[in-house]
Design a protein that fits this description.
homodimer; 302 residues; Formiminotransferase-cyclodeaminase, Chain B, domain 1; 2 domains; four-stranded antiparallel sheet; 34% helix; glutamate formimidoyltransferase (chains A, B); Formiminotransferase_N (chains A, B)
C-alpha cells in the first residue's frame, strides 16, 4: 500500500456543519483516514488533512471538492485568506516511499475529473504545474488576484485553466497539485497594525529577501485585534521552524513588537520540533536514535 | 508482557572490552534488548540501558553485576564521578503500565541475590529505600563519601547494608533501587574553573535552593579543559529540560560564562524534547495529537 497525504483547503471556516459534510464526503471513501480538521474564522477557511491508499486518493479528493461546490457560494464568501474557489487548493503529498511523480499523476487525474464532471476550472500548481509561472501558488492567487479578479481575467491566455471551462461559476476555481510536506506556521504579534505586519512578512518571504522555503503573509485577526504572520514552510528540513520564528522576532523588534505565541496549523512531523529543541538546547551531538520510543521500536523489528 | 527498563551504571569508562563483556553478559538473558551503551572517560563510568520482560529483569541485572565484579578492581579505579562499586547504581524503571511497586519488588530480589551470592554489600535507594535517609542517592554516596570512605564506615549502624556483608571487597558496594524515568543531562561551559562550576551546580540543585527534581554536580573535563554541569532530571514532566538549561545559562552569565553545548546521556523520551520546542517557539495551544506520526498510528489501531 502506497500512502498518500492530501490537504484540501476549503473556503468555509465559520459554519462547522458545512465543514463536517465535506469531511464526511471524503471519509466515506475506503482507506481514507481523516487526520485533522482545522477551521479559521478570520481566514474563513478550513483545512482537512487525510491519508489514504494511492488508489483511492483521487476519488476521496473529488468527493470533497464536489461537496464543497454544492455548499459554498463564492459570491457570498469573505475572509482574510486569498481564495479562488470553494475547494481552493488541493495538494497531494508523498509519504514514506511514495514518489513525487505518483502524486503529480494523481493531481492530473483529479484535475481532469473536476474540470470534466464538475465544470470547475482547474489550475495545476507546484510539482504538477504545466507552466513555470504556475509553480508558485502565491503567483497564481494572492491578495490582489483572487476569485473576483479571476472572473474577469479567465478568458485571457495567461489564465487559461489546465482543465475545465474558461468560466468562473459560484464554486470558483480549484488549484490542484503535488508538493512536499508543508508546515503551516503562524506567529501572532502583540500589535494591531497590519501595515507593520506586512513589512515583517516581507522580511520573512523568500521572494522578497527573506528565508528560502518560506512564504509569508500578514493578517489582521479582528476578533483578537492582533496581527498574525502566517507562513508556509515548504522545506522544514532546510529552513527549520525555529529559524522562521527567530527571524519574525528579530524583524518585529524593530517596531517594538514581539511574538505572543505561535501555532502550527494542521499536522507537523515530530522531527521539526525535535530540530527546534536541538537548536535551543544546543544539543549538538544528539542522535535521534536515543529517543526511547524509537529505540524500543527499532529493537522490536530486529 | 510487562516491560521494565534497567539502567545499570558501572565503574568502567575507558576500557571498551570490559564494557562489552558486561554488555554481553546482560544481553545473553532472554527478552533483553540493549537500548544504549554510553562510556565517559572523564567520569570513568559507563551506563548501559536495557529493557526486558519483568520476569527476566533480576537475572539480567545480576549477570551484569557479576561480570562487573569479576572485571573491575575498585582499588585501582579513579574517575570524576563519585562511586561505591564496580556495579555502582542499578535502578529499575517502570515503562508503559508497569507499576512502581513491581520495580521495588525487583530491586529487593536483586539486592538479596547480589548480597547472598556475590557477597557484595547492597544499599537499596529511591523508591526501594528501607530508610528515609537512603531515598536520595546523593545522600548515600557523593564526592566526599565514596568507595574509600565506605570501607572504613561500613561497620557503623548508619551504614549497615540492606543485603550482603558489612565488608567492602574489590567490587565495592552496589546501590540498587526503583525510580521514575530520569534524564541524564549535561551542560558544557566555556570556562575551566571548576570552582565556578560548583557554584553554578549549587544554584541548580534542588537541595541547595535550585530547581525541584534536579540533582547537579560540576565536573572538570580534563581532555577538553572545560567545566561541565552534570545533572539528573528526576521528573522531566515537572522540571523540564529547558528550565534546567536556561537556569544554567543565567547562573553562568554572572561569571561571564555561557553554555557551548548540552548533551543528553543515554535515552530520553520524545516528549521531553517536544516540551522544549513548545516552550521556545511559544506553541501555547499545540496538541501532540497533531504530530503526524502519532496521528497515523492512532488511526491505524481504530
Amino acid at each position: 500500500m502506497t500512502l498518500i497525504e492530501c490537504v484540501p483547503n476549503f473556503s468555509e471556516g465559520r459554519d462547522k456543519s458545512k465543514v463536517d459534510q465535506i469531511k464526511s464526503a471524503i471519509s466515506a471513501i475506503p482507506t481514507v483516514r481523516i487526520l485533522d480538521v482545522e477551521m479559521d474564522s478570520n481566514h474563513n477557511r478550513s483545512v482537512i488533512t487525510f491519508v489514504c491508499d494511492d488508489g483511492k486518493a483521487v476519488e476521496a479528493a473529488f468527493a470533497g471538492i464536489k461537496k464543497a461546490a454544492e455548499l459554498i457560494d463564492m459570491d457570498k464568501h469573505t475572509g482574510e485568506h486569498p481564495r479562488f474557489g470553494a475547494a481552493d487548493v488541493i495538494p497531494f503529498v508523498p509519504l514514506d516511499d511514495t514518489k513525487m511523480s505518483r502524486c503529480v499523476q494523481l493531481a492530473r487525474e483529479l484535475g481532469k475529473r473536476v474540470g470534466d464532471e464538475l465544470n470547475i476550472p482547474v489550475f495545476l500548481y507546484a510539482e504538477a504545474a504545466t507552466r513555470p509561472e504556475r509553480a508558485d501558488l502565491a503567483a497564481i492567487r494572492n491578495k490582489s488576484f483572487q476569485y473576483e479578479q479571476l472572473k474577469g481575467a479567465i478568458k485571457e491566455e495567461k489564465w487559461k485553466p489546465d482543465f475545465g471551462p474558461s468560466e468562473v461559476g459560484k464554486a470558483g476555481a480549484s488549484i490542484i497539485g503535488a508538493r512536499d510536506f508543508l508546515i503551516a506556521y503562524n506567529v501572532n504579534l502583540n500589535i494591531s497594525d497590519v501595515e507593520i505586519g506586512k513589512k515583517i512578512a516581507s522580511a520573512l518571504r523568500a521572494r522578497d529577501g527573506g528565508l528560502t522555503f518560506v512564504k509569508a503573509l500578514a493578517f489582521y485577526l479582528k476578533d483578537r485585534n492582533i496581527v498574525q504572520i502566517s507562513m508556509n514552510l515548504t522545506n522544514f528540513r532546510k529552513t527549520p521552524i525555529y529559524r522562521a520564528y527567530e527571524l519574525v522576532k528579530l524583524e518585529a523588534s524593530r517596531y517594538g513588537a514581539y511574538p505572543i505565541e505561535s501555532e502550527i496549523v494542521g499536522l507537523v512531523p515530530e522531527q521539526a520540533l525535535i530540530d527546534a529543541a536541538k537548536f535551543y538546547l544546543q544539543l549538538n551531538g544528539f542522535d535521534e536514535h536515543n529517543l526511547i520510543e524509537r529505540k524500543i521500536n527499532e529493537n522490536v523489528s530486529e
